[in-house]
């Protein structure tokens, strides 16, 4: 139950959704987790949602873990640099980095081609979801190098390089995949693992609100969006990343694009309701007219 005892983790973008769940599961497994993001009590991010990094840290602590909330805007180099300087002083090392900074949903207009889409919003999406990841890894990885071990996880959307339906969104999510692959190449000789991991249709707090449902009656959302029936909680991918972090043979996966549904099969875990959703299989049957092999 405490397979990550003694490990130090940073989950960048842990205010809500997958980031919060990942931080909680890493803490539950015994890791000391630095929970970062922009939303703190009394000063929410531009998304104006109620969740905060303090709440995430409190959930970790209530479950017997160690959560440390640190307000960081990961697009600002000096704030990121200060975060890892603090971690070096307090812990002397870093074992796990999860790059989950996003904030691109309100910036994405799915109904507009790129030349009509707001250029400002499209470029801001790259700053928030790509540049922030690069800045964070730049300052995080040196804390792993001295110990010749570590795991960097890029949270993305999708398991390939196919177009996602919006140029700017697609560029951001595919960039996360390539970041994982490129970092894996540079980090290989240091025995540090870098992977990209995608959830399926994520049943986040924001998505539940969007459909006007709660986790208790979430299936009602499928009346509005039929594909919501195949959704998964943020804790599904979180369990997968906790399992990856505990895998002594994780380096064999470096450079790979992984998914919550495949990790569930490999490490034999279920979502919070006991189900084992498989978005990849559902997507292929629904949109490609074939079953995933």
From TrEMBL:
Where does the signal peptide begin and end? Answer: none
Q: Name one Pfam family in it.
A: adh_short
Per its record, how is this protein called by name?
SDR family NAD(P)-dependent oxidoreductase
């Amino acid at each position: 139950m405490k397979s990550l005892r003694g490990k130090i983790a940073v989950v960048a973008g842990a205010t809500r959704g997958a980031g919060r769940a990942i931080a909680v599961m890493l803490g539950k497994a015994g890791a000391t987790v630095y929970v970062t993001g922009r939303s703190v009590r009394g000063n929410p991010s531009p998304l104006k949602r109620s969740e905060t990094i303090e709440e995430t840290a409190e959930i970790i602590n209530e479950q017997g873990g160690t959560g440390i909330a640190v307000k960081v805007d990961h697009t600002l180099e000096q704030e990121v640099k200060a975060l890892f300087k603090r971690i070096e002083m307090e812990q002397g090392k870093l074992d796990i980095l999860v790059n989950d900074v996003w904030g691109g949903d309100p910036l994405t207009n799915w109904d507009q081609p790129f030349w009509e889409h707001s250029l400002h919003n499209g470029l801001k999406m790259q700053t928030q979801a790509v540049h922030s990841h690069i800045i964070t890894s730049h300052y995080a990885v040196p804390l792993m190098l001295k110990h010749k071990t570590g795991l960097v996880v890029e949270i993305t959307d999708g398991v390939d390089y196919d177009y996602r339906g919006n140029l700017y969104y697609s560029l951001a999510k595919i960039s996360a995949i390539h970041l994982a692959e490129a970092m894996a190449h540079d980090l290989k000789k240091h025995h540090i693992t870098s992977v990209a991991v995608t959830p399926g249709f994520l049943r986040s707090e924001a998505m539940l609100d969007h459909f006007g449902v709660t986790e208790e009656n979430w299936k009602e959302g499928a009346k509005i969006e039929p594909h919501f029936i195949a959704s998964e909680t943020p804790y599904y991918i979180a369990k997968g990343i906790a399992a990856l972090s505990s895998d002594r043979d994780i380096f064999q996966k470096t450079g790979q694009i992984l998914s919550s549904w495949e990790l569930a099969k490999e490490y034999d875990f279920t979502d919070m309701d006991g189900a084992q959703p498989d978005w990849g299989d559902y997507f292929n049957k629904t949109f490609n007219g074939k079953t995933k092999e």
